[in-house]
């Protein structure tokens, strides 16, 4: 940029007020009143570039020109990180079809979608990255790498047609549907409808590693033309597309990947489930569906309760933050853990039993279902032999469970690593004061747990989503009174859950404009740098 000068118009002569003109001398610069071009840069779409800055020091005698070469950062989030594809920076005249090249152009651009990956795109990233020799591991959202490129999850881009350039992100569960152009005559030549296309490339255990994991076949389901599905017994059978009685059979209609990983960010297993179908001569395209899910080794997958908002009738998801967290790099994928006594990570309350005996109902829990007000309880028979402190701890465990969660997911699909998507549970304690004598104990026994879940309608008016914004758990206690020998008393122990909609109602006579206040997906900026 120090050699560029857009105001240098005269050959071998000094242009007036052109501070970047190399033909101007110091004496001529002293006569300038301003710099007509104060800054010269290259492509404004670059994220970072050099800038030549020109100015005049009018306080000097005589006035002098000041030249500085600085680094300029583009504030836009959509910018070019590296110009490794030089052809994209200039317009190139397209190749005109002729009788000689028509067949070649038709083969290259005749399909519904096409792409080109020049060799110049493949940069030597190790030379540019000073941390290339450090230990690599997969992190959330990073594309799952394979031997040749990355694990592809076809998806629609602009139209409904499938694009095979969509990478599968680590720990990002996805489900896509798209349309693929295929005919009976060419079905055996289309790679994207063959099982080999989705399992012939091994996955790298960690990025830039020589260790790989092969994609195994978990199950194969065959779908007939009328939609009937049959599960094949042998999952290791490779079925390729083929013509049979004016039909093309064994074409891929759906693929479901299941990736197993460790807490160190390593992929140790990859499996795929296929749905194969058939088409006749009338079919010009098929609809394909793709899924990918991730499960940590030695753990159970946690079902979602909505996407993104909660669905009425599904469990409220909950968890707790590990004690002493955060540790740098100690817990790489989750800041919240699921309860060890609740394998599905749900908010639970005491479950009523037919006997109504509190001491016999210990361990019986029922999940809190979103939108359902609930009440449950039991009866506790107190005898003179019972002591306050052990009984109070027993009742507290009965009401709250073995490991009461500290946080509740604000959305039905909140991920454990998204800290801001989890709402802390506010725990309150209230005591019922009664008239007592001087000899009455100050010990309190819990008798009820009241949970209030406040939620709101969130997002666009055309597709409102349920979002939890506040959760309160209130424990009520009674003062303990030791009974005389031979006496008994029975007290009720209750749990209740109330859902409160705190959405702001529309003002009467006022029609509000629809507002866009939606939750962006965590991969919204991918693949922009």
From TrEMBL:
Residues 3-102 form the Tectonic-1-3 N-terminal domain. Pfam families: DUF1619_N, TCTN_DUF1619. One of its GO terms (biological process) is protein localization to ciliary transition zone. It comes from the Eukaryota. The keyword Glycoprotein applies. GO terms for cellular component: MKS complex. The keyword Cell inner membrane does not apply. InterPro entries: TCTN1-3 (IPR040354), TCTN1-3_dom (IPR011677), TCTN1-3_N (IPR057724). Residues 137-297, 306-477 form the Tectonic-1-3 domain. Keywords: Cilium biogenesis/degradation, Glycoprotein, Signal. Belongs to the tectonic family. Part of the tectonic-like complex (also named B9 complex). This is TECT1 protein. The lineage of its organism: Eukaryota, Metazoa, Chordata, Craniata, Vertebrata.
